[in-house]
Amino acid sequence: MNRTSHPILSMVVSRVGLGLLSLLIVSLVIFFSVSLLPGSYASAILGQNATPEAVAALETKLGLDRPALWRYLSWLGAAATGELGQSFAGRPVMAVLGPRLLNTITLASITAAIAVPLAITLGVICARFRGRFIDRFLSTSTLASISLPEFFVAYLMMMIFAVKLQWFPSMAGIRNSMDLGEQLYRMVLPILTLLLVILAHMIRNTRAAILSVMSSPYVEMARLKGESEGRVVMRQALPNAIGPIASVVALNLAYLISGVVVIEVVFVYPGVGQAMIDAVRNRDVPVIQACALIFATAYIGFNLLADIVSIVSNPRLLHPR
Amino acid sequence: MASDQSPAVLEIRDLRIEAKSSDHWSQIVRGVSLTLRKGEVLGLVGESGAGKSTVGLAALGYLRPGARASGGSVRLMGTELLAIPEEQRRRLRGTKVAYVAQSAQAAFNPVHRLMDQITLVAVDRGGLSRAEAEKRAVALFTALQLPDPQNFGARYPHQVSGGQLQRAMVAMAMICNPALIVFDEPTTALDVTTQVEVLISIRKVIAEFGVAAIYITHDLAVVAQIAHRVAVLRYGEVVEEAPIAAIMDHPEHPYTQSLWAVHEMPANDPETQETPRAPLLSVEGLGARFGTFEVLQDIDLRIGRGETVALVGESGSGKSTLGRVIAGLKAPSAGRALFDGAALPPKLRQRPLELLRRIQIIYQSADTALNPRQTVRAIVGRPLTLYQGLRGVAREKRLIELLRMVELDASHADRLPGQLSGGQKQRVAIARALAAEPELIICDEITSALDKVVQADVLRMMIGLKERLGVSYLFITHDLEVVRAIADRVVVMQHGRIVEQGEKGRVFAPPHEPYTGRLLASVPDMAVGWLDRIIAGRAA
Fold it and tell me: pTM value?
């Protein structure tokens, strides 16, 4: 058992390597897809003022006259150090996106801190009381909530809690000048909406992951040893279902960063999603690229994390012969 | 053995259990009655589907999902299990009555250490402290002859061998000193050489701790070594119950007698050949690997025309892989093969259709080898069209002929595999192989999944077909009784190498290669007292 290279270590290293490779490929796609846009980059910026001289001058200024590979490498190099270039509006991209990213991460963290434990608990309860009222109720309602488009859920929340009951504001436009309580108060409706969207998915998958383990011989063995049903679920089934649960949690956490665009727009929440919509409207290509890169990083990062969790939760790998 | 006056540990009276299949309930246990006294071991024998496990689990007051008790009574030390609430039944399990499952590999939870799983019930409900429970577990490990008993429990299930894990499960069952243990085929998943060790351990602890036991198995030879009494179960009914010696010497019920069907088949006598057989297949220096793992090394093998070569060895010895390499399903990494004098291309895709026709393969499980959505006509008809170019009336005529050859008739042609019995399905698979009119058939454990009577019938049929058609068999099996009945020559494999090969009579007669000797010595005799002799032989 005292082998020098632990299999887990080499597996984790190779997963991280693969994650970096996917990120590299994504960055290639992001960078070069811009060159597929119609018209030259510079003439698009200059719009009506695009005289040949002006276009050439701008191309030189932006470095567009250099070879594409050189531009890609310098963009990538800068991005790796957190420097995402200049937006067309003249400000550094990080200055535009930084505070927005912080807002999105705040919203995501609060939602995740509530959603993940709640979803796993409810999923376990569904599995434990399979076929009983609580399971059927949650299964039906989660199915309904998955089926509804997220913007519809958002407007529904708004109509009930902002318009009818007038408990919470419909606009979540938080500013730094507001105190924390005020900011949280304004974030209630987006959080509630996001909860409804991601809870359903996680509950259903947790339930399914546990139930698939519940038919294993070792679960029957535990019952034959007289363990109570609750202990069977918690002690025998749950630890063996961690891998699949982690992967659905990762997908939903990635969604909280990259998929919330619609909800941020509906509630006018100043997050990355909003910033990306603005950038698309203004054809601010560096900002769009930066957003795409951030979303891709979140996606790949969370999935990598889930992979590592499921490797580490496998006793065969954790405790080799 | 305990006297008849001692109180019954378990008393099952007229037990009836129903299982739900699609939309109706059908009885799978039909009025079973059994009595078990302290220190007594009752063997429960029968073939798959006879209801053995269902009765065994009922002794724990446990019914599998989809089953219900529809009558009768199960009294465990005077407590009527079917009348008390589930919560009370649950508390008896693990403490008063325990269970040992067939596959310890599957029955231990992979994420917990063995010690935690073994001591759980004792700490939870057995009234022992953790330290006391662990001390008792170590004592049991010692009694069960597990290696390094002090530290054995610190390991995870995947870190110990199958035989050790099976004994660890016996320790888990004994941890609360129960009055009754149900052993459900505890050695079936093990290799024969491991089976002996586990049997010895089980018998030792049963005797040492004076526990009553139900020992479920399909193998009469095994139960003869361990049980005092045997109940033979068929279709959910006890057809015969008697002391073990009486059953072994004078089985009364025709069904019980049929359990000897393969055992009593005459050993085929390879007629001494004046001229050596013309070689059909010869393999030289063959090797194969999965990744870097060498599954086969230096295989030299010859099969003559009309010869049956039995390939024996334990699971994982590379028997099936060798069959697959010859069939072209796996490419070898070294060596070469000649078929009828010509080089056999290593890969399936390099082999012309005519060559594919000449080598056919039949698998252990006809259930998975036959397409469940095709009729027998489509299954057997396809090779007729593919290899022989037969269509229409000619094809139908040949199809019927083939079905007759495998002792089915024309009416089976329109059935789906799901509408056939296990033996009939295997016959269809054999007919499919014969349709190609092959010269070599690779038979991979083709009788292992069948009941003894059916096994004997299929073996007899295979022998007849060989004589009629002059086909050669490579007969892969772990069952030495089958080898005795069918083989001309025997090839013994271990760890991917051939350890011995030769005429059956010579391989089976001493002096043996060490491994062959161990293999032969590990197969239980169909007689009481075999295990006693082994134990006595070791003590001497």
Answer: 0.82
